[in-house]
Amino acid sequence: MDNQNNKNHPNNNRQGWGIILVTTLLVTFMVMGFYSLMRGSGPEEISYDKFLDMVDDKKVAEVSLSSNRIYITLTDEARTKEAQESAPDSMDSVINQIWGQAAAGENGDSSPDYYTAYVSDDTLVERLYKSGAEFKGEVPDTMSQMFFELFVTLVLPIALMALVLSWFIRKMSKGGGMMGVGKSNAKMYMEKETGVTFQDVAGEDEAKESLQEVVDFLHNPGKYSGIGAKLPKGALLVGPPGTGKTLLAKAVAGEAKVPFFSLSGSAFVEMYVGVGASRVRDLFKQAYQQAPCIVFIDEIDAIGKTRDTALGGNDEREQTLNQLLAEMDGFDTNKGLLILAATNRPEILDPALLRPGRFDRRIIVDKPDLKGRIDILKVHAKDVRMDESVDLEAIALATSGAVGSDLANMINEAAINAVKHGRQVVSQKDLFEAVEVVLVGKEKKDRIMSKEERRIVSYHEVGHALVTALQKNTEPVQKITIVPRTMGALGYVMQTPEEEKFLNTKKELEAMIVVALGGRAAEELVFDTVTTGAANDIEQATKTARTMITQYGMSEKFGLMGLESIQNKYLDGRAVLNCGDATAAEIDEEVMKMLKTAYAEAKKLLAENREALDKIAAFLIEKETITGKEFMKIFREVKGLPEPDEEGEEKTKEREGRITMKPVEEAGI
Ligand code: ADP
User: Fold this and answer.
1) Which atom of ligand 1 is closest in space to residue 368's alpha carbon?
2) Strand partners, 236
3) Distance in Å, CA 246 to ligand 1 centroid
């Protein structure tokens, strides 16, 4: 990977400023030191009466008068005497002496030793005359001294600063602008060849089909423009995180064998207004030079948000977006430049971005279905050594809701797991452990629960499992465990789906709520008190009940009225109420009623099967983890049910090892 403009890392900028600061300080100190040395070594000021005394004592050899000062040069004799009198007790005076002698050596005896303020004194001339001192009325070169001072204190430091600054500017502009402002220095990557093809992207067949056309256009733009067809300028890849949007964009570049530029939408926007816009300009300039090529902007929502001025807006983002729109309008598609952008929040994008001629194609890259998951697992398992026990289909069935990046991660975790256990190949067990690690975190071996807590958690989990087994319309139990996990679960029940489901019936949803509340019901039944462990179950049960009422039209009271709509479909799927406050209160009441009925049902089921509950819980406390088979065996024994026939046995076997993502959220603690 060719990291183009990363020379201007923020650290470099900070370093740059640091160096400039230090240089400025150094120059200032140097100038000040030099100046004070100069001043300190020149004539010393004395009082006027002392000067008169010197004249009377015939110590003065020469006097020169300026407009406001009188400069005094001593006779050799007087100077030697003074030097002997003032003992060299300080560094300053040593410097002064050396300087004085040096100056005297250079200029003969003419450099003045003292100066005093000019006082209007008629007797002075006569006194000087009497003492035999030479005197002249000329100014001792004050102009040139003034210029010298000006040069040292002002011109020299400014010139030095300018020199240092210009050196920095030149150095930085080579890597992308002064202090990184202006150029697209932000994490822009350029790959000459991505090496990724559509074969590396599993599933997502519809998306690949749409993009195939784009590849063809990059290969052969003339074919399209020949008949006057307008080529697409950009395509927007929409889908949840981790579904392979970046991978698809890279595959387009790989298939078309063109360079791939990528950067994140957030990298455009900075503190300074105008920076983003200039980065967009710079990006397009660079892309033009490399055309045909693909420019991939990840998280385009960071700059492409609707330009909403109602709340004050964001100048920088708006300018950046405007620049992007202008660039997209401006470029000529025949050059073979294609902009691909990815987002998981298409609903907040500015409509201007989506109009024809800009990102006119929208390609949905959704979560993979069962077949897609199998294919993704196969792609990633290609380079991993696996033994014959591995059944990727079972893993795919167990991971409904997982996206490509989850699955890739699971295969890798499994491989690491195998290495950790000193094996050369990955087994199905490793894969399932990896699924669990990705879903609920690692086992928390160091957490020691008290005996009482273990009992409560056991009853809680068996409560869930038993309610599952006692109801129709539920998925069979696969595993019950009270080993805590790092992601917060103190224990959980896993259920096995028999096949991938795209729809849920009302009965199934109702059964789900009863199962979710089964844990709490067991606690209350056995311990006559309740714990905090059911928080997640309650949240899940409430969510299901509310959705049934507000979105699925499954309540008698509201019937088919749509009371909530989904926002952020590709992110958290958050719902927003579409009704008045009074209706909202009524909805709450309905939810409450539904939950109460479900809870009563769970308690009833468990109370009727108290013996099974106790026996299974005791077994779980002893073993910590039990399989669905062991669970069902005790259950059947207690209930006096016959063992399943061959076929049933086969079915359980077939399901073995399948778990689902749902129970983790549902089974809470
Ligand atoms: P997104 O851009 O949608 O957030 P990425 O393209 O960055 O997701 O996907 C992250 C990783 O997940 C990829 O590098 C790849 O290893 C894996 N991945 C995701 N989707 C797929 C897929 N459809 N086929 C193969 N691998 C995938």
Assistant:
1) 23
2) 341, 362
3) 7
- Active-site annotation holds for 461: yes
CA distance readout (Å), 65 to 70, 117, 120: 5, 10, 12
Please report the atom of ligand 1 found closest to the CA of residue 237: 3
Is 484 close to ligand 1, i.e. is its CB under 6 Å away? no
204 CB within 6 A, ligand 1: yes
Q: Which two tokens stand for residue 486?
A: 């790092």
Residue 299 Cβ inside 6 Å of ligand 1? The answer reads no
Residue position matching structure tokens 């000067």: 51
Q: Do the Cβ atoms of 506 and 548 come closer than 8 Å?
A: yes
Q: What percent of the chain has pLDDT over 90?
A: 16
Give the helix/strand (H/E) hosting 199: none
Identify which has the larger pLDDT, 296 or 149. Answer: 296
- Give helix 610-623 / helix 628-639 axis angle, nearest 10°: 150
**Amino acid residing at 629:** K
Q: Is the CB of 241 under 6 A from ligand 1?
A: yes
- Bridge partners, residue 110, by sequence: none
C-alpha 184/C-alpha 4 separation (Å) is 10
Model pTM score: 0.64
Residue whose C-alpha is closest to residue 615's, from 530, 532, 526, 534: 526
Residue 254: CB within 6 Å of ligand 1? no
- pLDDT for residue 654 is more than 50: no
Q: Rounded CA gap, 117 and 43, in Å?
A: 12
- CA-nearest residue for atom 14, ligand 1, is 247
Token pair for 478:
């696969």
**Residues 6 or more apart from 503 whose CB is under 8 A from it?**
none
Question: Which of the listed residues 243, 250, 252, 571 should we mutate to test ligand 1's pocket, taking the one with most ligand atoms within 8 A of CB?
Answer: 243
- Residue 658 confidence (pLDDT): 35
* Residue 495 vs residue 11, higher pLDDT: 495
Rounded Cα distance, 246 and 298, in Å: 8
Active-site residue, selected from the candidate residues 327, 461, 510, 666: 461
Distance from C-alpha of 190 to C-alpha of 103, rounded to nearest angstrom: 66
Residue 174 pLDDT greater than 60, yes or no: no
Q: In degrees rounded to 5, what are phi and psi of residue 559?
A: 60, -130
Tell me, in angstroms, the distance from the centre of ligand 1 to residue 248's CA: 8
Mean pLDDT of 177-198: 60
DSSP helix, strand, coil percent of the chain (3-state; round to 5) = 55, 10, 30
Least confident range from 260-269, 343-352, 508-517: namely 260-269
Compute the distance from residue 247 Cα to the ligand 1 centre, in Å.
5
Q: φ, ψ for residue 85 (rounded to 5)?
A: -65, -45
**Pocket lining: 290 vs ligand 1, CB cutoff 6 Å:** no
**pLDDT over 70 (residue 38):** no
- Find the helix packing angle between 506-527 and 581-608, rounded to 10°: 60
In the chain, the amino acid numbered 556 is E
Residue 270 has pLDDT above 80, yes or no: no
pLDDT in the model for residue 544: 93
H helices present in 551-645, as ranges: 581-608, 610-623, 628-639
Amino acid at residue number 250: K
pLDDT at 402: 84
Q: From its phi and psi, is residue 441 left (phi > 0), alpha (psi between -120 and 50) or beta?
A: left
DSSP state letters, 472-536:
SS-PPEEEEE---BTTS-S-EEEE--SS--S---HHHHHHHHHHHHHHHHHHHHHHSS--GGGHH
* 194 C-beta closer than 6 A to ligand 1: no
235, 362 contact by CB (below 8 A): yes
Q: How many A from CA of 201 to the centre of ligand 1?
A: 8
